[in-house]
Design brief:
By secondary structure, the chain is an alpha+beta fold. It is built from 2 helices and 5 strands. The N and C termini lie far apart (about 30 Å). Belongs to the UPF0102 family. GO terms for molecular function: nucleic acid binding. It holds the Pfam family UPF0102.
């Protein structure tokens, strides 16, 4: 499977997983000039902005290492733009998250990272 196909598959798998965990998936692949939020979902009074990482090989670092300061700042900017274009979402508490899917289709969901 090509990298882009694997990424798309992972985002669909991740959206299904979040739905099975009680999230309402509102938007997928929300993009602007600053970047992208892979999945935007809602559960309780929290808006989850989730980055999906699908890796089909053993890597020598932890998936959470993708969240360097540059990535965090881009996600914040995209979120800010999201709330400007969808003002009804601005009152919700936001949680920036990572959903990691490994080669065995095991999911690790890390919420409230920043």
């Amino acid at each position: 499977m090509k990298k882009t196909e694997l990424g798309k598959w992972g985002e669909n798998f991740g959206a299904d997983y979040l739905g099975s965990q009680g999230h309402s998936v509102l938007i997928t692949n929300f993009r602007n000039k600053f970047g992208e939020l892979d999945i935007i979902s809602f559960a309780g009074e929290v808006l989850y902005c989730t980055e999906v990482k699908t890796w089909n090989q053993t890597l020598h670092f932890h998936p959470l290492q993708v969240f360097n300061e540059t990535k965090k700042n881009r996600m914040r900017k995209v979120y800010y733009y999201l709330t400007k274009s969808h003002p009804a979402l601005s009152h919700l508490t936001v949680s920036f998250c990572l959903l990691h899917i490994n080669e065995k289709r095991e999911v690790s969901f890390y919420s409230h990272l920043f």
